[in-house]
């Protein structure tokens, strides 16, 4: 899974697109534009920074500028995957937010979006018509319709912030070697990962790599890897699936010791896996 910088080449401040197909494009990527996503139909796993969680029909997400993300469709979903996506010029929104109090909601969304936002599903269903109207409006009207949607979204109190502040602020996604390592972790965290393999991947010895990784992420390699695995375990434990036992969440997240998993889970989350459920 390679992290791609996508250039949208916006000829206007708002770029509208829609997708319908068997599954969403599995592409770990980032871009300077904000991305507003309405999932018309589909389900799967969403990656935003170090966040790993589920997405499903009627979900709405706002992903900030230059935040790596990917929508990975579930293989067992029956039916077409469909989405409405709006890419928003960051500088345009920032200038709007400076025009007066009536645009303060834009400043709030810009600030919160740097971690990625998921809006309450029940509230999101109210936006179904607004997004479909957006799909049908002329190009000149899409900016106004998008601002209308953003304003309505800003009124929702129940929203989830996705990626951690530490991940967003401390990791330099423009660094090719760090990118290479993070890409490998995100693709392979469910499997055993050897430190010497990672070090060789970026042409370093283990000592130099550990020092370099901590300088660029503010975390040791083991702590970073454990954090990704625990986030995925949380995703599994949240799912309404009786087969997702604590033991299964442990081993399916890449841990090979249940006692070690329980200890790291409590350290990272603040409670035992049994209490989290």
User: Fraction of residues in helices?
Assistant: 40-55%
Summed up, the helix count is 13
Instruction: Tell me the fraction of residues in β-strands, as a range.
Output: 15-25%
Radius of gyration: 20 Å
Question: How many E strands?
Answer: 11
Strand arrangement in the largest pleated sheet: 2-9-4-7-10-11
Write down the CATH topology of the largest domain: Jelly Rolls
CATH class annotation of the largest domain: Mainly Beta
Give the biggest beta sheet.
6 strands, antiparallel
Principal-axes geometry comes out as globular
| Low confidence ranges | none
What is the CATH architecture assignment of the largest domain? Sandwich
Query: What is the CA–CA distance across the termini?
Result: 30 Å
Q: Label the structural class.
A: alpha+beta
- Average pLDDT over all residues: 87
Query: So, the CATH homologous superfamily of the largest domain?
Result: Regulatory protein AraC
Element string (H = helix, E = strand) = EEEEEEEEEHHEHHHEHHHHHHHH
Description:
By secondary structure, the protein is α+β, with helices and mostly antiparallel strands. The protein folds into two domains: 4-165, Regulatory protein AraC (Jelly Rolls, Sandwich); 171-276, Homeodomain-like (Arc Repressor Mutant, subunit A). 45% of the residues lie in helices and 20% in strands. The protein is built from 13 helices and eleven strands. Strands 2-9-4-7-10-11 form a six-stranded antiparallel beta sheet. A three-stranded antiparallel beta sheet has the order 6-5-8. Strands 1-3 form a two-stranded parallel ribbon. A hairpin with a 2-residue loop joins strand 5 (43-48) and strand 6 (51-56). The radius of gyration is 20 Å and the shape is globular. It starts with a strand and ends with a helix.
């Amino acid at each position: 899974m390679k992290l791609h910088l996508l250039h949208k080449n916006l000829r206007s401040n708002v770029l509208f697109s829609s997708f319908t197909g068997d599954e969403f494009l599995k592409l770990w990527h980032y871009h300077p534009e904000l991305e507003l996503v309405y999932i018309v139909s589909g389900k799967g796993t969403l990656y935003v920074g170090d966040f790993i969680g589920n997405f499903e029909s009627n979900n709405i997400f706002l992903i900030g500028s230059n935040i790596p993300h990917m929508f990975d469709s579930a293989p067992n979903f029956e039916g077409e995957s469909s989405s409405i996506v709006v890419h928003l010029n960051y500088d345009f929104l920032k200038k709007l937010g400076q025009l007066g109090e009536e645009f303060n909601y834009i400043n709030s969304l810009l600030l919160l979006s740097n971690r990625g936002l998921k809006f309450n599903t029940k509230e999101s269903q109210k936006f179904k018509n607004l997004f479909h109207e957006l799909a049908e409006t002329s190009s000149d009207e899409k900016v106004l319709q998008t601002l209308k949607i953003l304003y309505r979204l800003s009124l929702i109190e129940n929203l989830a912030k996705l990626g951690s502040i530490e991940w967003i602020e401390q990791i330099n996604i423009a660094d090719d070697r760090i990118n290479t390592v993070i890409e490998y972790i995100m693709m392979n965290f469910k499997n055993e990962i050897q430190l010497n393999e990672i070090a060789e991947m970026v042409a370093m010895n283990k000592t130099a790599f550990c020092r370099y990784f901590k300088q660029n992420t503010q975390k040791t390699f083991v702590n970073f890897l454990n954090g990704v695995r625990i986030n995925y375990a949380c995703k599994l434990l949240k799912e309404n699936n009786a087969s997702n036992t604590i033991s299964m969440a442990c081993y399916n997240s890449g841990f090979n010791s249940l006692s070690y998993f329980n200890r790291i889970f409590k350290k990272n989350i603040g409670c035992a896996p049994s209490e989290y459920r």
